[in-house]
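Reading a protein record of the kind used here takes only a little practice. Think of the row as the fold of the chain written in a discrete alphabet. A record is reproduced here so that you can trace the correspondence yourselves:
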Amino acid sequence: MPSPHSRTAVIFAPNTRNLGMYSVDLAGYQILRTSANRVDFFAECKPNVREFKYGCMTLNRYTSQDQLSDYDTIVYWGDFTTSYSYGRREYFNMTATTFFPYSKTLIKMGATRSRVQRKVVNRWEQLYLPQFKNKRYYSVGQNFQTMTKPIFDTLCSTKQDKYRQFRFILPRDSVSLNNLSLIFDDRSTPPNLHQICDVAFLMSGLPKTPPKGLQSKTVGVYFRRSKISNVTELLNALSKHANVVLFTDWIGEGIDFEAAFQKNITRIRECHFIVSDTYHFLINALREGRPVIGLGNAQSEQVSTTGDFKKKVLFSDAGLTEYYIELSSHFLSRSEIDETLRLAGALGEDYWKCYRFDRDTVIQQIKEALAV
């Protein structure tokens, strides 16, 4: 149990080109800053900036866990950051040239990629795995779909033990929970495991509003992730039955986060339902009470942070499996377009009957875990 005078550090993973990740971090900011204890927010950013504005939030630049020595509780919030698979692959790809600007030159001069990778992964480990024995560590709302037991078993015992310093790991999906349950099969020792949901669901949203079918309705459409080559054919088909509203700036360069986010949420609220291939766009629409139909390429496992498998898991965990359409290729067949139209035309009150996520319950579960 934390003391009344304890301090909490929350580590975000902002993506300066993605409003979906902004919604993840904004949810954490809304929920955790109301704590009775002092809470400060941190995130990695480019060098030479002590703190920076991130939409309506001010975050401290995060460069070392030495900055956290005065904090009792450390929370890693959202995304993939505490997954070793992420550290070894995506973190390397995203940060090697930012924090090790000579990495490409070193490789050209003969240094092996694995040597440079070790330096970058070591940085990830120092930032995103527990380093202090006397602190309370938590991983909240993260994805461990790519961290399987065979991968975890390749880690040295020191790294494995660092994961056992987490008091709670609260993954966002059932596949992540299954992976972690196989890894930490001795439930008598930390970490405690409990599935929640993607934390972008935890911002306050509108009540669920059941549509009454496709005719004379407004459908919001955003496609960015699955590289579907003939989206125009779907748009033409939808436009024969509904007013189609195209979203264009959910992901992109030079985003004015708060203004762009509020504009997009307002436009989502003006739609009767949403069709999209983009994970957090779908989540934000669901949170705002708008039924969604998701599309993505068929995958049997999560191969990267932006892969399509996580959308399939999302719809399954939400109780909405029938509203996710898996494509056989990066191309919408006639039957897949017809199925999208059929689902849209049948939208009604039954849509929410099997919906499983409850915001207040999950927030309470997080607060109870952080109190341990």
Notes: The radius of gyration is 21 Å. The chain has a mean pLDDT of 89.
